[in-house]
């Protein structure tokens, strides 16, 4: 991932690809899901919450940035930020692991706090792994350069 | 810490998540199927009865709760009524994986005529099912439908 030569053309292509994919995933699909729900159940309060779009815009910015700066140090905080934002998003979307609904005099409450901790575990690890991977690569590069310099005379 | 250690941790985290989610989904499906079969299969254990003695009606519900899943199951039934005319015993059963338990719920209406003539015949009840420690489902509903005039 790090240390590989990435051309500007590839950076732009990756950024455009990230922009298209994330826009479809975070804006287009939620919008049409909202239209579908409103059309099917007109009198219900079933709508896509605004926070989905707000989070979507943040995801798009960070994903496009991470794709554009791939292989560089500046991409590391963006990758971590996407992972942490995913944690916040999952927590927010599931109301902290307690979901409730009331219909026809019946109330249903689903509690899955511990399950939620497990669900966000990969994202938390992804947020930690990004800087660690970069540090490992940097250390390997330094060790490679310092050990290789005396033993690699220029022919 | 090398790159292989990081990859190892990533794989371990993915495995933990898959195992937990898979086992919880599997357990939920197995428990649901077992309870459904128990209630629909005409088991003599899953019965409810309303008995009227004088003005007092007693509703008894015995449910056999099988646990075919991988996690301990806890089922609790309780109810709440704003007047002193209805009394419910909060009852709970813990079922170990592979075992089964019997939940005995009893609700007493001391003055059935007063209950029948009351404006609201709603008895707020709660059924809690938890697959310890991961998932819990609480259903709040009206237990007033269990009370029948004249018992039976």
Write the layout of secondary structure elements.
The complex is a heterodimer of chains A (about 160) and B (about 150).
Chain A: H1 8-40, H2 50-68, H3 75-93, E1 98-103, E2 106-111, H4 113-151
Antiparallel strand pairs in A: 1-2
Chain B: H1 3-40, E1 47-53, E2 56-66, E3 73-80, E4 86-88, E5 91-95, E6 100-109, H2 112-117, E7 124-131, E8 135-142
Antiparallel strand pairs in B: 1-2, 2-6, 3-5, 3-7, 4-6, 7-8
Describe the structure concisely.
The complex is a heterodimer of chains A (155) and B (152). Chain A is mainly alpha-helical and 155 residues long.
As residue ranges, the low-confidence spans of chain B are: none
- Binned strand content of chain B: 35-45%
Main sheet attributes: strand count, strand direction, barrel closure of chain A: 2 strands, antiparallel
Number of self-contained structural domains of chain B:
1
CATH architectural name of chain B: Sandwich
Using the alpha-carbon principal axes, give the shape of chain A: flat
Distance between the ends of chain A: 30 Å
Q: Quick one: how many beta strands of chain A?
A: 2
What number is the mean pLDDT of chain A? Answer: 86
Backbone structural class of chain B: alpha+beta
Oligomeric state of this protein: heterodimer
Largest sheet, spatial ordering of strands of chain B? 1-2-6-4
Instruction: Give the percentage of residues in beta strands of chain A.
Output: 5-15%
């Amino acid at each position: 991932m790090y240390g590989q030569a990435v051309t500007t053309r590839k950076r732009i292509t990756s950024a455009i690809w990230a922009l298209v994919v994330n826009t479809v995933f975070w804006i287009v699909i939620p919008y049409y899901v909202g239209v579908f729900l409103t059309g099917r159940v007109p009198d219900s309060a079933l709508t896509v919450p605004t926070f989905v779009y707000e989070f979507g815009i943040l995801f798009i910015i960070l994903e496009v940035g991470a794709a554009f700066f791939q292989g560089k140090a500046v991409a590391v905080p963006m990758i971590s930020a996407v992972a942490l934002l995913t944690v916040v998003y999952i927590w927010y979307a599931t109301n902290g692991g307690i979901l409730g609904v009331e219909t026809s005099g019946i109330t249903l409450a689903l509690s899955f706090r511990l399950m939620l901790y497990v669900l966000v575990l990969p994202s938390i690890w992804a947020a930690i792994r990004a800087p660690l991977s970069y540090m490992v690569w940097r250390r390997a590069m330094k060790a490679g350069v310092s050990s290789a310099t005396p033993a690699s005379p220029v022919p | 810490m090398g790159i292989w250690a990081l990859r190892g941790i990533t794989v371990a985290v993915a495995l933990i998540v898959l195992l937990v989610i898979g086992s919880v989904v599997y357990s939920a499906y197995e428990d649901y199927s077992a309870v459904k079969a128990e209630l629909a299969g005409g088991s003599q254990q899953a019965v409810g009865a309303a008995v009227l003695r004088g003005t007092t009606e007693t509703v008894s519900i015995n449910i056999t709760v099988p646990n075919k899943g991988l996690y301990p199951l806890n089922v609790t039934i309780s109810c709440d009524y704003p007047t002193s005319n209805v009394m419910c015993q909060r009852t709970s059963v813990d079922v170990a994986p592979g075992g089964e338990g019997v939940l005995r719920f009893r609700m007493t209406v001391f003055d059935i005529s007063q209950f029948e003539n009351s404006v609201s015949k709603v008895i707020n009840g709660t059924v809690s099912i938890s697959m310890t420690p991961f998932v819990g489902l609480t259903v709040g509903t009206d237990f007033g439908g269990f009370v029948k005039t004249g018992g039976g």
